[in-house]
UniProtKB/TrEMBL annotation:
GO terms for molecular function: DNA binding; DNA-binding transcription factor activity. InterPro entries: HpaR/FarR (IPR012712), HTH_MarR-typ (IPR000835), MarR/SlyA-like (IPR039422), WH-like_DNA-bd_sf (IPR036388), WH_DNA-bd_sf (IPR036390). SMART domains: HTH_MARR. The gene is slyA_2. Gene3D superfamilies: Winged helix-like DNA-binding domain superfamily/Winged helix DNA-binding domain (1.10.10.10). This is Transcriptional regulator SlyA. It comes from the Bacteria. One of its GO terms (biological process) is negative regulation of DNA-templated transcription. It comes from Oceanibacterium hippocampi. SUPFAM superfamilies: Winged helix' DNA-binding domain. PROSITE patterns: HTH_MARR_2 (PS50995). Residues 1-128 form the HTH marR-type domain.
Length: 144
């Protein structure tokens, strides 16, 4: 519950900004993830944005309809599509990013840079300790 409360406190700073640009949190995560590579397959995008494939498919349709992303078939696997930012998507990110960074700055000021860095390290450590490793997923009785 403490993690959920903290998430809500953080996201409460971002939601109004995203609403002003007619974006959901998940749509913003997808757009931001697409800034990290020229193109991504849907599975990779789902993984880096922490969104399930069914939800991602719906989000991609919406972003595509808005002209914010581009999709093209992969040359080696015609069933797979590669997703990238459209010019309008990049422009939207350019408009929102400074506002987003200002919110991160407010959070850093409120919590303190050292405490925030410690929190990031602790959350990364917690994630690493609790992540299910592929061998454990395939064999629930496996030990590491």
């Amino acid at each position: 519950m403490a993690l959920l409360r903290a998430r809500e406190a953080v996201m409460g700073r971002f939601r109004p900004m995203l609403r002003d640009h007619d974006l959901t949190e998940q749509q913003w995560r997808v757009l931001r993830a697409l800034t990290t590579a020229p193109e991504m397959r849907a599975g990779q995008l789902a993984s880096v944005s922490f969104i399930s494939m069914p939800s991602l498919s719906r989000i991609l349709r919406i972003l595509d309809d808005r002209g914010l992303i581009l999709r093209r078939n992969e040359a080696t696997d015609l069933r797979a599509s590669l997703i990238s930012l459209a010019d309008d998507g990049a422009a939207l990110i350019a408009r929102i990013a400074p506002l987003s960074e200002a919110h991160y700055g407010e959070i850093t000021d409120a919590y303190g840079p050292e405490a925030l860095e410690t929190l990031y390290r602790m959350l990364e450590d917690l994630t690493e300790r609790l992540e299910v490793r592929p061998a454990e997923r395939d064999d629930p009785g496996a030990t590491t």
